[in-house]
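Sample intake sheet
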Amino acid sequence: MSEQQIKYFWNGIKVNGGKLLKGHYTEQDGVITLYAWHYAGFRGVQGVINNSEIMTDYFESDRVRFDRSSSQWAEVLAAYEKQEKKTIARLEKKTKGNHAHSLLCAQKNLERVEELRAPATPVATQSAQAELLAMLNM
């Protein structure tokens, strides 16, 4: 089987130039997750997670997770950033209702993108590791 060509958009993905598979992105603890919309699914996409259980009527949308070590990290991060920019623009246009909290959340998500662009810092430096080993050997 040939390598899949996946293009990431703010509202989903296209696999091998096919139809847009709609989805949305979330970020938590440096991991971006792409969720399929309305159980449409990302069938055939490598790394898809879906723990649906038909026997118990438990259904989930397909999802794919990306962290900084992922080869697609830059493209996924760019798509997530574009999604958040579009969300902010949409919420700023709304005049009815109270959208202040949603707008604030989207703005914070966009600020977080800059942190996610920076290279990952090691959890412990060599000197910190040496100190820890010294304490354990006491």
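Comment: The CA atoms of residues 88 and 103 lie 6 Å apart. Residues 6-123 form one domain.
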